[in-house]
Amino acid sequence: MSTERRPPRPHHLYVHVPFCRLVCAYCDFVTVGGRAAEIPRYVDALLAELALRPVVGQLRTIYFGGGTPSLLPTQSIGRLIDAAASAWGGRPVESTVEANPGTRERPDWAGLRAAGVTRLSLGIQSLADVQLRALARGHTAAEALDAYRAARAAGFDNVSIDLIYGIPGQSLDDWRTTLRAAIGLAPDHLSLYGLQLVLAPDEWAAPPRPGALRWRRRMAARQDEDLAAAQYGTAEELLDRAGYRHYELSSWAVPGRESLHNAAYWSRAPYTGIGAGAHSYDGNTRSWNERDLDRYLEAVENGTLPLGGRESADEPTRAFEAMALGLRTVAGVERAAFHAEFGIDPVGRWGTELDAAERQGLLAIDDVAVRLTPRGRLLANEVLAELLPAAR
Amino acid sequence: MPRMVSVFDRLAAVIPQERIRNFSIVAHIDHGKSTLADRLLEATHTIDPRQMTSQVLDTMDLEREKGITIKARAVRLHFDADDGQTYALNLIDTPGHVDFSYEVSRSLQACEGAILVVDASQGIEAQTLANVHLAMDQNLVIIPVLNKIDLPSADPDAVVAELEETLAIPREEVILASAKDGTGVGQILEAIVQRVPAPHGEAEQRLQALVFDSHYDPYKGVVAYVRVANGTLHDHERIRFMATGAESEILELGYFRPGPVATKRLTAGEVGYVASGLKSIAEARVGDTLTSVQRPAAEPLPGYNEALPLVFAGIYPMRGDDYPLLRDALERLHLNDASFVYQPESSVALGFGFRCGFLGLLHMEIVQERLEREFALDLIAGAPSVEYRVKLIHGNEEVVVDNPAQMPDPGEIEQISEPWVSAQVITPSDYIGPIMELATGRRGEFDNMEYLDPQRVNMHFEMPLAELIVDFYDQLKSRSSGYASLDYAYRGYRPGDLVKLDVLVNGDPVDALSLIVHRSQAYRTGKALVEKLKELIPRQMFEVPVQAAIGSHIISRETIRAMRKNVLSKCYGGDITRKRKLLEKQKEGKQRMKRIGSVEIPQEAFLAVLRVNESGS
Fold first, then answer.
1. Omega within 30 of 0 (cis) for the link into B199
2. When you count CB atoms within 10 A of the terminal residue's CB, does the N or C end of chain B come out lower?
């Protein structure tokens, strides 16, 4: 019997902040508009939820996502980081806050630094006003540039920016212009998202308001799949030339500046999510919080965990997730690691399916790993749908 | 010798034939027939308003959803009239769609009167007019009712004038009503008593009972709805259906109030049901005459016809394994609806399935929906077709072809004939132009037109049935802002310059997409069809050509480009479970497609021909 103490497992914390000044019509995360007055109450609830959660490992990263987390007072962000660090032990090596660049929702950058935030993710989305207007983002390209420079001036040395392609009316040239301007800012990290318009509401997404749904339908009718694919190809090319490393389907980074927090999701590390609608994974079970803000607040204020639902992941589901998440990374699914966990090589488990995908030019399989080809990166769903576990 | 009788039985026994009234309601869809029926049931205490689910008479879910009555039902109402007497009023419900005009005529034959319900803002519609003519042909007393007079858009004066003009109905006979709020209901009931004659018929004569509807009940076998014309039906006696020759002993005799009430006998003039114990509805056809085996009538009642299917389509299971399930489902459905026919067929593209014949397009939709809903089957229904008669160069016989894929080689054909119908369209005169254009574009031949009033006309066309069944009705509605109404009747076969159009997907002919078209329209249809297929067939992992051909001659081509992008671009903590669910949905969607060669084709594509005229034309 060993009495040796194992080092505490690293753990990751996600904090969801649903408040927005403007709710974007394309967004299907959990968001609320017009309720900023309740932010202090919500911060208290987050602290209370944190106290209700069992301590399962040592805090390695923390990520404030939304919604618009930069709407939180910087002291509140500081309190949350401190509370998590003291409850779970250890100082996080990466603390990210998502921020909007609009002048009316821009945070106090220096205050964020002082609160312990080490990384910013700026929702710039486009550097062309016409596209920002099309998305009704509520900020201009000039404001975005200002915000970026102000953050740098405040001392942030790890800044990521989000951009959106596939916007109706956005030509290949328009996209190239935005990309060049973004590269010119020399961010540490870029996340590029194809505009995804969810038309059929599903139980996993926040239900869109009727107006948003009409807007999505109109926009979706003007989307061009071929153009979006070409825009993605252009981004791969330009960013590679600028020295960024493509490390995940939608993520590029200066080497060493990859997002540690997001990497935890893709490597299926355990994490805890707090806040309305936040998800958690403990290695066996995926669970999620009550999505409705009022019910979330009520539960936590009554001293109970605001659980919305849970699903335990059986072996076939875990194996599928290993592929679904591993294939998102450019490095792919490492065959030996998969074998070590599931007792069989992925090529042994899904011989026919992987072979077919390889012949269609979607997958590259070598001795070390299974990865998506550049064409496959845009058709990942076609590969993954074939690997789904049999319906339960 | 006192015996136990139910209240209803006793009442029935004391209502003599002269105080029986048999009537139907004739109305256009949405003009309020079912609501009026509900009000009549409430006003006569046949049903407690609190138990009322709206529209009691339409018992099938489908009927309620489609707002139409598919199967006739008969309900007995007891009404205490102003003269102090209690009357038995038998309300015989009629189907409200052109596909079922034969059934309507049989229901009307069981009546002496008909309430004509016309929407006070819409006026009379083509089908209603056709049904009123049927009723008048059978010498029924017509009680005209203007419904929905409570609506602000109601224009009673104009509609009354229209009734006077088109049907010679005196304006003083017209009752103003609102089935919604109950206005006029009492007046309608009194009018039934006063204006509709009591049924004729002799209780002592040999039994003749008209079957005006039937359904299959798993416990009681075939239940026939009858109107006794002459003689008396006795519980447990042996009966014979005169046209089919089927015989059985009555298991139960009764009438509806609105639930079934058993009785010992039904005599001349009465309406009720006969549970026969027979196993197939085909043995108790609508229009047949029921008689006694012991004392049979010499002659059946006049007017029996077997309803002939006019529209044909292939119905295939999505998964080949479901073929036996589909066969069982069709068998069971057929027990309840003898008017559709089916026989096995096979398709290169779709495998094993059935060729089904229907009374019309709506009937086809209903059967298909019932198969999917009641038997949980995933089906592919092909484009509807008519029955062609083909004269071959060699051989004297005509070949009957109801599946375009089976059309003989063009080199062997001397002549193809197709069924024609005469169609009447009633429309506000503003739409004469667009409707004329629609009908002549569908090879329709204009006969004549009469003005019903200064604003409305009745247009008559002759046209090929094949042109009518492919979205003609939808087009008619859309070109007339929903105002025009349609009725049609089969006329006979005529030769035409027809060709078979084939569709090739990725180079493979898809027999289920073949269709017969007039040569003059082949290019336009071929082009529209491949364009529509390009829209309906999702992108595949490779480029897919879609072609239309006559014989070996390609007349049109489109290319479905290869899929470029299908990826969830954002995937964070909260998205992982959701992503799996979305992929599961995607996979389910794929499983609902039919794989032909290496191309996944969705169900809707097989109905593309129905939609080729949606855009353009």
1. no
2. N
CA atoms of A301 and A38, how far apart (whole Å): 14
Contact B592/A at CB under 8 A: no
- Domain interval for residue A183: 10-266
Please name the residue that has the structure tokens 């019509």: A25
Q: Report which residue type is found at B376.
A: A
Residue B553: CB atoms within 10 Å: 9
Are A167 and A126 a contacting pair, CB within 8 Å?
yes
Residues with Cβ within 8 Å of residue A97, at least 6 apart in sequence: A64, A69, A70, A77, A107, A112, A117, A119, A120, A121
Chain B residues with CB under 8 Å of A192 CB are: 569
CB contact (8 A) between residue A321 and residue B576: yes
Three-class DSSP category at B33? helix
How confident is the model at residue B187, as a pLDDT? Answer: 96
Amino acid at A256: G
Kindly report the nearest CA distance between residue B43 and chain A, in angstroms. 43
- The full DSSP string for B475-486 is HHHHHTTT--EE
Binary contact (B564, A265; C-beta < 8 A):
no
Distance CA B499, CA B497 (A): 7
**DSSP per position, A331-374:** T-EEHHHHHHHHSS-HHHHTHHHHHHHHHTTSEEE-SSEEEE-H
DSSP 8-state secondary structure symbol assigned to residue B541: S
Same domain as A340, residue A229? no
Q: Are residues A189 and A92 in the same domain?
A: yes
Q: Do A194 and B569 touch (CB under 8 A)?
A: yes
| Residue A328 belongs to domain with CATH number | 1.10.10.920
Question: Which structure tokens are listed for B48?
Answer: 């407690």
Tokens at A276, concatenated: 């309305």
Query: Is the domain of A56 the same as that of A157?
Result: yes
Contact criterion met (CB below 8 Å) for B494 and B417 = yes
* Residues A129 and A46 placed together within one structural domain of the fold: yes
> A351-354: which pairs have CB atoms within 8 A and are 24 or more residues apart?
A353/A383, A353/A386, A353/A387
What interface predicted TM-score (ipTM) does this complex get?
0.89
Q: How high is the mean pLDDT in each 10-residue block of chain B (617 residues)?
A: 40 78 87 85 78 49 40 78 94 73 85 94 84 86 95 92 89 93 94 96 94 84 93 95 94 87 92 91 88 95 79 89 93 81 88 90 85 88 90 88 89 93 91 95 94 86 91 84 82 94 93 91 90 92 95 94 90 82 86 85 80 51
Residues A23, A87 share a domain? yes
CB within 8 Å: A279 and B565: no
Residue pair B277/B228 in contact (Cβ under 8 Å)? The answer is no
| Residue A301 belongs to a domain | no
Are A324 and B573 within 8 A, CB to CB?
no
Question: What pTM was computed for the model?
Answer: 0.68
Q: Which of B253, B330, B340 is nearest to B70 (CA)?
A: B340
Instruction: For residue B565, give the nearest of A194, A360, A384 by CB distance.
Output: A194
Which of A360, A379, A381 is facing B583, going by the closest CB pair? A381
- Structure-derived torsion over alpha carbons of residues A361, A364, A365, A371, reported in degrees to the nearest 10: -130
Structure tokens at B416: 């193809």
* A contacts of B585 (beta carbons < 8 Å): 202
Consecutive H or E run containing B292: strand B289-292
Question: Do A69 and A102 touch, CB atoms closer than 8 A?
Answer: no
* B598 part of contact set with chain A, CB < 8 Å: no
> Are A44 and A170 within one domain?
yes
Coil vs helix vs strand at A145? helix
A2 in a domain, yes or no?
no
Measured in angstroms, the CA of A233 and the nearest CA of chain B are apart by: 11
Contact A226 B561 (CB under 8 A): yes
Say if A357 falls within a structural domain. yes
